[in-house]
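Might you be able to review the protein record set out just below?
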Amino acid sequence: MSGEKPFYTLKELAEIFGVKPKSMYNLVYTGKLPARKWGKMWIVTKKDLEKFFQELPMAGDTNARR
């Protein structure tokens, strides 16, 4: 995919996924989504975002963490 960024702000991710920015901040503060503070912004690297999605349970997975 061309035009991919090496990192995203939490606000950008909220817009991409159609959730409120607070939802993204909650994922960071609970340790579920790794993020780094850069100036006044929180950023998530593409690598960390990919890892986050790989660790999500698949639909129908009976061994999913709750």
